[in-house]
Write a structure and sequence with these properties.
The complex is a heterodimer of chains A (313) and B (231). With 313 residues, chain A is α+β, with helices and mostly antiparallel strands. Chain A has 8 helices and 19 strands. The longest helix of chain A has 16 residues. Chain B is globular and about 65 Å long. Chain B has 11 helices and no strands. The chains are: A alpha+beta (313), B mainly alpha (231). Chains A and B meet through strand 7 and helix 2 of A and helix 6 and helix 7 of B.
Amino acid sequence: MMDVTLDGVTFSRDGRVVLDIGELSFPAGSTTAVFGPNGSGKTTLLRCIAGLEHPTRGTVRVGGEQVRRGDPRIAIAFQQPVFLQGTVGQNLELGLELRGVPAASRGPRVASIARECRIEGLLDRPARALSAGESQRVSLARTLLLAAPVTLLDEPLSGFDRVSWLHMLEEIPALLSTRAATTVVVTHDREEAFRLAERIVILVEGRVRASGNTAAIYRAPPDAETAELLGYTLVEAEGRVIGFAPGSLTREPTPLRFRLEAGRVVDLGNQRRVIGRIGATRVELALLPGESAPIPGSWIDVGPADWVEFGGG
Amino acid sequence: MGDLGAGLRDALRLILSGDAEVYAIAIRTLLISLTATVLSLLIGCPAGLLLARHRFPGRTLLLSFVHAGMGMPPVVVGLFIWLLLTRSGPLGDLGLIYTPSAMVLAQFLIGIPIVTGFTAASVQALPALLPDLLASMGASRIRTLWLLVREARLGMLAAVMAGFGAVISEVGASMAVGGNLRGSTRVLTTAIVTATGRGDLAEATALGLILLALALAVTLSLTVLQQRRTG
């Protein structure tokens, strides 16, 4: 197992600083989600780790050794899967061939990963004729097939329909758990970050806002902006910023109360929600079964079951 | 219509009779144009790859020159080569003017921008992440280049066809630097001009048909190769 460490890495493109990472490490054998909004530098960070971009300053090391382009210790799956002409099977075998795997053992390895990733039925299909979800699945299989000590996955769940997405949220951790690789998963989706990784690095405008255990950071976000990224609703009250998690707002008595201006009611089939406002903040209040919906424009008292506080907003 | 019909009839008679001079001209044409095409490929393919794959100062300007060169009148190339190779020119001592070598050189220069331009366009049309994917899987630089060429083979074969089509059909450069010398530098295009000039409709039509047949045969072979690999 190999750890990944970044030491004072900065990366500039066209004179603009895209990444400015101080010290950052990905412990050996861990799975870390690099999470952040679009344009926060997540993919650039992944490409620097893969050796596909040279940092303007600083170094990236894997197992204590600096990475280089084409580093055999690293395998990467791109956000947009790229394939060569030919079948899925040929594309998978090419990866092994380029890594110097003897021809005799390529077939069994491809068959094995195809079974694991449930793509046996795709092996004879032209790789460039796959659907978005199938492409992602094959791209993941190709990356895992290389059995590299460091596995990098860039938005591995983009392109899946909702049902497949839910399946993949279960399958990817299972696939990763059977390997001892240090894995870095880039995602802009909070739920993916939480379900796929035990560690998280939150990146905003190329800088690390927080890193560490996913649950611990969720429970105690370091600042309001990070909390908002993690899905908290932020409300200003008496000079403080209160953050509460989605679904925690209730009409039941709570120590902290707000006045909510009710808006329209959305029926999600299994649940009705009131879309309303607390001050300038848009919030959602889940209605209990049988509970009457407030009249749009009326005011009701609500409060969060649990919340975090930040300094002046 | 009557003249054309008679011309075609006479042309077919000339072709089927196995006229030695006509066939010598056809073979010379093929040799000169194929040699020039192969030389254009040797320079144009790597140049196209370089322009497609690398960013460097002056690249856009260079690409503009290549694109302009794709439509350059062959007679201008012929004039340029003639000025270089003529007895009093800077390369006059080589004694190449009015030789098949001079014609190969001229056609080679006509072919280079066409092959370069087509190659660059076909490689640039590949997915941008392909080189990164290959590198990440451990492909060496040479292997990456080879795989990119293989991926771009449809466009590259189009480059071969366009290059060959341009050089076998040009007349201006061959006339200028070859001189249309009978038995030495006369090729199908220059022979057609000469035959038309002296009113020999049968010979002009026969040569024209052979030129068309040669161009068709070569491009047909390449197209079959291109489409077979696609499927």
